[in-house]
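Today's session is about reading a structure prediction critically. Students often jump straight to the picture, but the first step is always the sequence itself: look for stretches that repeat, for charged clusters, for runs of hydrophobic residues. Only then move on to the predicted structure, which in these notes is written as discrete structure tokens rather than atom positions. Here is the chain we will use throughout the hour.
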Amino acid sequence: MRLLALATYPTGAACTRFRLASYLPALRSAGVDVDFVPFLTDEVFRDFYARRGKLAKARALALAVARRAALLTRARRYDAVFIQREAMLLGPAIVERALTDALSLPLVFDLDDAIWMTDPGQQRVSAAPLAARLLKSPSKSFDIVRRARRVIAGSHHLARWARAYHGDVVVLPTVVPRDAWTPLPGRLDGAWVDGHDAPVVGWIGTHSTATHLDLVLPALERLAREGRRFKVRLVGAARQLSIPGVELESVAWSEAREIEDFQRIDVGIAPLVDDAWSRGKCGFKQVQYFACGVPCVGSPVGGAAELMRHDDNALTATTTEEWATALSRLLDDRALRARLATSARRDVEARLSIEAQAPGFVRAVTELG
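Below is the predicted structure for this chain, in token form.
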């Protein structure tokens, strides 16, 4: 089988790295000849969401569109096409239509967010460049789903949406390589990673999701007023925050440091506003905490609610009172930390890993009838 694999972003984006690129070795081992072609290059993606260089971004988008057009001229060599999110970041589903209508290629469509929403930012300001936002096509996701031979959804919430338009939908959560994402020594015993008496309460994400931190700040402030000792480390937030009486570190995200950053967190937090866009999230941050044996507290929203079992593999919280109580329990109770971390890691080894999900992914892509 010769497969053309298209994605909006290069592997610098988690959605591409973990929902497509991590499965390429399994596909190739199954005899699939894969050509992976992202819409944006690594160089362009690196600064794409910075608020500068508008002309350079416009040129980069134009070149990316030209590359997609050139790709269509040689697409007949493939037996099928896999698309993660969309073939192009802007415009209607022109590429998808050409591949399915003109070239009659069976299409496998993968989605890991509520990308059908016309305003994913909702209360938040979109970080996408203005040109990309203006050239978005609201009906694109519906069009792609209807043209697909099969849809792969990152959560049951996303699958329910897709099934309203398509009969063949497979649920595959976003997961990590089991042998690369591992707990540090002592983590599954509930120990603080560096043996210090001021544990690290940590969060890792992007500037676009950092607004969710507002849900947990009051609880952290309350714990600090009560005299609890802890540090807060934010990775990728790009926000200036302060908590009276608490040492707070905010650092830039780095792909090279990604696993280590998760491993070095003692208590993980994963707050999410309960809105339509967040309900489309797959709970991937929880999976990353689980894999590294980091006991965590999260909002039971969307895919996270499907993965988190309160007081079994994680703690869940909705109100400030619940957040404060959950964090207090994790800071005070080593046995609880060990129990949650061990249960969560067991989930990763059994089903929430690339190794566990790879056979299902390969079948979803290759067994198209």
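Discussion point for the tutorial: The first helix runs from residue 14 to 19.
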